[in-house]
Amino acid sequence: MKFRVNRDVLADAVVWAARALPNRPAVPVLSGLLLEADGEDLVLSAFDYDVSARATIEADVAEPGRVLIPGRVLAEITRSLPAQPVEIVTDGSEAVLTCGSAEFGLLTMPVEDFPTLPEIPQKIGAVGGGVFASAVGQVAPAASRDETLPMLTGVRVDIAGEQVTMAATDRYRIAAREFEWRPEQPDVTAAAMVPARVLVEVAKSLRGGEVSIGLGDGLAGFESLGRSTTVRLLDEQFIDYRARLTADWPIRADIRVAPFVEAIKRVALVAERNTAIRLTFGHGQVLIQAGGGDIGRGTEVLDAELTGEEIQIAFQSHFLLDGLSGVETEFVRLNMQSSSRPALVTEVPGDAEPAFRYLVMSLRVGV
Question: Taking a C-beta distance cutoff of 8 angstroms, is the pair 155, 194 a contact?
């Protein structure tokens, strides 16, 4: 095998594909990146039996072929190369990489032992990369990182015609986001549980163009701009999140998001671990309080438009901040029932139904 490729293009593709490499590969070959050169294309692939990644880039291929190279080493090398064309040639058990005056001889791995990557599932629709990335960014923070409860580590994706809903929960909060997409069939319906960590990586890397989504045979597939990822789905079991997000909210408060976030961060500096941020809503303002223990205390007052009775309610600061980070409007609305019940964080889009909803558990005031 012998090919020449642009250094920046190669480095970008290698680093992207290397994200799918397992930290602790079950077998040594899974730590490798598969390079396949043919015609005018170079395809780089990674696979760990659960997640696969493929990137296709243009290359000047003099001799077609396949080679398996240690992935993380290749990623480190390509990022450090000078801004000159890169040539890779296989020579026995070595892949010789040259770029300007730099040369590396990398020991190859047995390409015949590398598993066959799964095919991308049949496309069922597409959505703009920006919308996709925004939705994942709003929902994924609510997914659990506790691998002993796999259901809670995923993002639920519900598809009904032109409407997609993503939802996640870790039992202490629920985040949901609805958006429109372009289905292949107008009456398509589907549901899937996608591992949140994979979905986050996909959203980061595919936000530049349209994202095609496929589902089938226990896999989800995402493809955009010459890059594709497949991931094995989790069990479809999930909570009835829609019922929990629907309630009567007799109390609501509208607050400007940016100063609210900054005030919470400042006041939380004196909050001891696992203690609450307390919000006291009166007509025209909200008092933000924390501390009072061994460190000290902090307070700040902001303007707030309150509808309903005055209320004091408390939250874990990082849970509340995660919800506020998903709000894309200038104002946020806190919908409340009582100080002991969860509150619903929504955007303030005027008369439209909010696309983003975030239910967060309240804490006993004084905790």
Answer: yes
